[in-house]
């Protein structure tokens, strides 16, 4: 049987038969992969513990007729154990996995940027940024905005999302795709504070240094806007998003 290797993040697993699992992964080279891990639910399994959600692993696969089979697993990072110690961090991570699963639909289509974003966000969630830790909800917001942008739904926090007229603008509409000028403003658009829009811009661009001094109220408003924007663009509520403490 032909084999191949790839690095991947485990998104979810489900039971198959007596002792096997189907593992859904987001990989560096092949995008989404669903593969069978045989015997992993037996206590004697060599790699069962390495194939849990949040595991970052290097794997070898044997190509199968329908699903490929995992034949080797080496651990790169175990993001899971640290996350389970803190409920807000864990739920933030869970939303990330679910979002990646939702945004990368096709199996076998490379999705390198989504893979790198997810691994990077889980790393920040575990170890903080270069200049210190950030609240889990803020790390999640940055991930959601960037993952949506990579998927083609980049929000605008400066120029009008409808007509492009140069900002800053003060009205925000998730449906319109970001801030809007007064002429384009739909009914029901909100008016976030200028600090909030600035924070959202920094989160979208991954400028962590500009998020260091964000006030709690600003971060909370940014979180609400990100959730509204993400929910709109992901069609229906992410199951785990409702559990995030904001
Ligand atoms: Zn406009």
Automatic annotation (TrEMBL):
Keyword Transcription regulation among record annotations: no
Signal peptide: none
GO biological process: DNA recombination; double-strand break repair
GO cellular component, one term: bacterial nucleoid
Assigned keywords, A-Z: DNA damage, DNA recombination, DNA repair
Short name of one Pfam family: RecO_N
Keyword DNA damage: yes
Gene3D superfamilies in the cross-refs: Nucleic acid-binding proteins, Recombination protein O, C-terminal domain
Top-rank taxon: Bacteria
Location of the DNA replication/recombination mediator RecO N-terminal domain: 1-79
Its job: Involved in DNA repair and RecF pathway recombination.
NCBIfam families: reco (TIGR00613)
Family per similarity comment: Belongs to the RecO family.
Name the UniProt record assigns to this protein: DNA repair protein RecO
Classification lineage: Bacteria, Bacillati, Actinomycetota, Actinomycetes, Propionibacteriales
Gene this chain is encoded by: recO
């Amino acid at each position: 049987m032909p084999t191949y290797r790839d690095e991947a993040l485990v998104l979810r697993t489900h039971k198959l038969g007596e002792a096997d699992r189907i593992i859904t992964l987001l990989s560096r080279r092949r995008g989404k992969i669903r593969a069978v891990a045989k015997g992993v639910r037996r206590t004697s399994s060599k790699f069962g513990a390495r194939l849990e959600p949040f595991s970052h692993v290097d794997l070898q696969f044997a190509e199968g007729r329908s699903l490929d089979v995992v034949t080797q697993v080496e651990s790169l990072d175990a993001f899971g154990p640290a996350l389970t110690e803190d409920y807000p961090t864990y739920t933030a991570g869970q939303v990330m996995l679910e979002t990646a699963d939702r945004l990368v639909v096709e199996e076998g289509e490379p999705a390198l940027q989504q893979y790198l974003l997810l691994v990077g966000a889980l790393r920040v969630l575990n170890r903080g940024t270069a200049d210190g830790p950030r609240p889990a909800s803020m790390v999640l917001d940055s991930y959601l905005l960037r993952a949506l942008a990579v998927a083609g739904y980049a929000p605008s926090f400066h120029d009008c999302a409808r007509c492009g007229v140069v900002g800053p603008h003060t009205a925000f509409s998730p449906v319109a795709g970001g801030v809007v000028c007064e002429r384009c403003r739909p009914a029901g658009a909100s008016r976030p504070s200028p600090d909030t829009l600035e924070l959202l811009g920094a989160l979208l661009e991954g400028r962590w240094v500009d998020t260091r001094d964000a006030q709690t109220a600003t971060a909370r408003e940014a979180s609400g806007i990100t959730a509204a924007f993400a929910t709109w663009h992901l069609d229906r509520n992410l199951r785990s998003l409702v559990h995030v403490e904001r």
